[in-house]
């Protein structure tokens, strides 16, 4: 019978698609991680990955085992936690980098203080990429923006907080104020730095431009809110982005923030998870932490 460590190794390899990367995560040598995978496949009697020179890709047999193995690990890690009345074990969360600058980072820190035996592993990425990883069981859950599309029936998304979409421009020595956009506000000599169109936040940028009937001098397209903010600070363009929560915008001496005159579009940030999974006690605690922090 395979040990919990062998099962955790399988989950880590399925998430990274690499024995070496999984080994670094769980503290093994690549050789030991590879041997554990071979042991598991030999014990089950089937190959769980399609192998090529550069990576391992879960096959149908491997994908079918993700959820039951995660459930076994969750049940094992929860042993004794009910007696101690606290959360323990490991949860793997996908998270937008920009959410770590918002309410999520603060709530996560509070959660760790409340439950010191809980290990939270964060994987950075984009909302659209996280959906498949959550559905495949590679991630227990993910902090993502609200999907512009209907989610599969096996998934659910719970809103945690929201951020208004705003126009940001470089500070040019004018009096600092939070003002409303007019035709004169949009700089004619600077390019518009757009968040990547195909992303979920990119859809919100498009929606904001259309609602406010703005004419943009299209320039760069980037998939990082943080990079966009820094480019605008350097005077290389202007942009429409979510006004990240918990960021001290008022004292940023290199940016001007403008509200938009039309309907306010919000980036809604929430927790994406499967309707049934082995880490629901932890995701429930995460959602409760936000309700507590925002009440």
Describe the structure in brief.
The chain has 295 residues and is of the alpha/beta class.
Report the total helices.
11
**Mean pLDDT level:** 84
Helix- and strand-based class?
Answer: alpha/beta
Can you name the CATH architecture of the domain at 162-267? 3-Layer(aba) Sandwich
Q: Overall 3D geometry?
A: elongated
The helical percent reads 40-55%
CA-CA gap between termini: 48 Å
Care to count the β-strands? 12
Main beta-sheet strand count, sense and barrel state:
8 strands, mixed
- Write the CATH fold name of the domain at 162-267: D-Maltodextrin-Binding Protein, domain 2
Order of helices and strands: HHHEEHHEHHEHEEEEHEHEEEH
Low-confidence stretches: none
Radius of gyration: 22 Å
* Relative strand content: 15-25%
By CATH reckoning, the class of the domain at 162-267 would read Alpha Beta
Note down, in words, how this protein is organized.
By secondary structure, the protein is of the alpha/beta class. Among the domains are: 60 residues, Arc Repressor Mutant, subunit A, CATH 1.10.10; 106 residues, 3-Layer(aba) Sandwich (D-Maltodextrin-Binding Protein, domain 2), CATH 3.40.190.290. It has eleven helices and twelve strands. The strands form three sheets. Strands 3, 4, 5, 6, 7, 10, 11 and 12 form an eight-stranded mixed β-sheet that branches. The protein has a two-stranded antiparallel ribbon with strand order 1-2. Helix 9 links the parallel strand 8 and strand 9. Helix 1 packs across helix 2. It starts with a helix and ends with a helix. The model has no long low-confidence stretch (mean pLDDT 84).
